[in-house]
Amino acid sequence: MAILNGDNNSPPDKLRELLLLNLERIDAAVDGEYAENDRRLNWFLLFQAFLFQGYATALQAIIGGGDKDEGQLAHAMLLMVVILAVGLITSCMTHVSTQAGILATEMLKQLREDKFRRDAEALNILTDGWFSKSDPQRLHDKGLLPTRWGPRLIFIAWIVVALHYTWIFCC
């Protein structure tokens, strides 16, 4: 709850309601960005699991025991190249989209804080003690580590797999 200054210029309840409504809309936008990043990462991790499994299956078809048809080997090798390309491309795209989501969230949060301070000042509402003196941003950034680094690490893993493919079949 807001602590009002003791003068006669206190804002009417309707203005306070509008202030809270504006803040709730910005909070909903922030929550929407967080949910969108969660969806991106869930889709990404599930898709990458299928790609890695497909790559392993194709590799097993090539280097596994038994007689093989030359056509099957060519198709398996092509499938491995396609899987590598799709893995690299989706990792890069997911990294870019999650970083854009994080940036949008940070901008919305800054907008919320700026708007709140400006409106509270205009409405003569004291905000002392409303904003933490510690640095909650550092803790929040640690929570974003999977979002920030997950796609990057999977991208690096695909590069290692591509180097392995090159080493197996080209050397």
Core attributes:
171 residues, mainly alpha, two-stranded antiparallel sheet, disordered N terminus
Strand content: under 5%
Low-confidence stretches: 1-9
Described by the principal axes of the CA atoms, the overall outline is rod-shaped
Spatial order of strands in the largest sheet: 1-2
Provide the number of structural domains. 1
DSSP summary: helix tally: 4
Report the order of strands and helices.
Answer: EHHEHH
Instruction: Give Rg in angstroms.
Output: 26 Å
Class based on secondary structure composition and strand pairing: mainly alpha
What distance lies between the first and last C-alpha atoms, to the nearest angstrom?
Answer: 70 Å
**How would you state the average pLDDT, rounded?**
80
In total, how many beta strands? 2
Short description:
With 171 residues, the protein is mainly alpha-helical. It contains 4 helices and 2 strands; from the N terminus they run E-H-H-E-H-H.
